[in-house]
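Lecture notes, unit on binding sites. The following record was shown on slide 14. It pairs a sequence with NAP.
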Amino acid sequence: MSRWNIEPGNTRLGWIGTGVMGRWMAGHLLQAGFRLTIYNRTQSKAETLLQAGAQWASNPRQVAEVSEVIFTMVGFPADVRQVILGSDGVLAGCQPGKIIVDMTTSQPALAVEIAQRAAQQGVIALDAPVTGGDVGAREGRLSIMIGGDAEASEALRPCFQCMGKTIVYHGPPGSGQHAKLANQVLIASQMVALCEGLLYAYKAGLDLERVLQSVSAGAASSWALQNLAPRILVGNFDPGFFVEHFIKDMGIALEEARRMGLALPGLALAHQLYVSVQALGHGKKGTHALQLALAAMSGIDWQTRR
Ligand code: NAP
């Protein structure tokens, strides 16, 4: 029998970070009937959730004080450190028995540090990053990769099932982050291939809609091709998944690869290309903005197609 009985109406949840992903994920928990207390750096981005019945707290510590399970979905490892380990952070508001779940894509070593510091207080901390994009978050179809205490991970299934369709436990603290980084290594070279393929088809004078129709039906199909290529064709580079977050993820994966003595040349190339995307001023655009930088390298202005 589990130490926890996590269910709507019974368990009070906390949520920190109501951005592109977090606002949908938290919204699904609220819709399922969980009582939710939330905090975000910019309060206006939490407004929809507050109108839907969530309670506001004025910092992460106060969220933790009134919640049994506290989820975080912020941007960068420095944000995770601040919202969980800071003086007004989640851990400062936790009594023994509470569970912290960081769903941000962050460093495996930070997940281990948080789990260890939490354990000293009788608190459990899981890392549970996700993949599936803004579309997966909105539709509650994310893939969730979990590291940390196995029993707590299982007990939290009713929460994870509100947000995702594929929920997999990977092992000790940091394992969820490693699984997510493997996902980012996979995506990195796919994004280069996607943008180069479209650029080639354009320069060859083809109708890109027809090209998409053909290649989506064959071996080249992928999530990125199906979800991002249509946005590239109409010149919509809104995020989605921010370029600056992808650079963060690839940087963490490269650090881990260096530590493990691994050569990952495809990842290193994709990272360098994305540094150029950011240098061109597209850091706050979606990852498919790589198209703009690759086109520029060949003297093509993608938005005007000259
Ligand atoms: P986002 O829109 O920037 O959301 C992050 C939210 O966290 C923002 O609302 C931000 O506040 C808040 N935040 C950041 N630091 C904070 C702090 N110190 N205190 C309080 N609130 C803080 O990013 P996102 O796209 O939702 O991504 C969140 C995480 O998921 C990232 O690690 C990303 O790599 C990962 N991820 C994203 C996707 C995707 O497709 N978008 C997919 C999978 C994983 P402000 O509103 O003030 O900026």
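Take-home: The chain has a mean pLDDT of 97.
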